[in-house]
């Protein structure tokens, strides 16, 4: 499912499963991610950071449709209800990341589709390998509308309206270099190893600033007013100034 490790000031949340594991977001994986993020929050100190990585070919291939079908006993309506349930559960993951008291970095070393793409862009920084993997919102091709919080996240995180149109209304699959040009990610790297190395360098650079995590989280939330409103979060005034 996922593991959590701390090296120095950096937490590493890894989606596990070697080979072709798609890291589909079902209730078990969602719960595992939330538990890891809760532990990160409880252990946070001034000047910490989070890097999220994944094993195998995928960063995450979105909600676990196969799980919804198998758990619904062949009932299409029940499968749809289970998909909605998973989407509601995943909303809390987005909320956890947006309110986490430290900088967050997604090292995308494989395909990130649908909720998997949403998972990536819920981090402060997104780094991606250029030799393999695409960013893709598959809902239009699958005939599924996005929940309100997902739309708010995309509007908040994808600055250019024409790029949002390509992502949502054309279902374009973006490779890393094009994603940088479009403003979807921050940087592209030759392979998975170099992507993670770049994420670590960025994390180390950020932790050296020794920012107060509570202040960092409140400034982040204030940066995305529409998203935090939909998520049900609030912005508090925090003053922990070092005089």
From TrEMBL:
One GO cellular component, as annotated: peroxisome
EC numbers for this chain: 5.3.3.8
Pathway: Lipid metabolism; fatty acid beta-oxidation
Pfam families xref list: ECH_1 (PF00378)
Molecular function in Gene Ontology: delta(3)-delta(2)-enoyl-CoA isomerase activity
Enzyme class: isomerase
GO biological process terms on file: fatty acid beta-oxidation
CDD domains on file: crotonase-like
Substrates-to-products reaction catalysed: a (3E)-enoyl-CoA = a 4-saturated (2E)-enoyl-CoA; a (3Z)-enoyl-CoA = a 4-saturated (2E)-enoyl-CoA
UniProt entry keywords in alphabetical sequence: Lipid metabolism
InterPro entries tied to this protein: ClpP/crotonase-like_dom_sf, Enoyl-CoA_hydra/iso
Annotated family: Belongs to the enoyl-CoA hydratase/isomerase family.
Protein name: Delta(3)-Delta(2)-enoyl-CoA isomerase
Taxonomic classification: Eukaryota, Viridiplantae, Streptophyta, Embryophyta, Tracheophyta
């Amino acid at each position: 499912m996922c593991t959590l490790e701390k090296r120095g000031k950096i937490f590493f949340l890894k989606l596990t499963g070697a080979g072709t594991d798609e890291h589909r977001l079902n209730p078990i994986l969602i719960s595992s991610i939330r538990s890891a993020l809760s532990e990160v929050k409880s252990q946070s100190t001034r000047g910490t950071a989070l890097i999220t990585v994944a094993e195998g070919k995928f960063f995450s291939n979105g909600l676990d449709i196969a799980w919804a079908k198998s758990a619904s006993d062949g009932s299409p309506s029940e499968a749809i209800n289970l998909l909605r349930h998973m989407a509601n559960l995943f909303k809390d993951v987005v909320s956890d990341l947006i309110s986490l008291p430290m900088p967050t970095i997604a090292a995308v070393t494989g395909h990130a589709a649908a909720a998997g793409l949403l998972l990536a862009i819920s981090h402060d920084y997104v780094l991606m390998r250029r030799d393999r993997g695409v960013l893709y919102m598959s809902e239009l091709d699958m005939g599924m509308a996005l929940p309100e919080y997902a739309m708010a996240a995309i509007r908040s995180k994808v600055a250019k309206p024409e790029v949002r149109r390509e992502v949502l209304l054309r279902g374009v699959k973006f490779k890393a270099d094009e994603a940088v040009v479009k403003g979807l990610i921050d940087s592209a790297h030759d392979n998975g190893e170099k992507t993670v190395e770049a994420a670590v360098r960025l994390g180390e650079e950020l932790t050296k600033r020794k920012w107060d995590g509570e202040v960092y989280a409140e400034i982040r939330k204030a940066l995305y007013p529409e998203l935090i409103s939909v998520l049900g979060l609030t912005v508090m005034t925090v003053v922990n100034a070092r005089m």
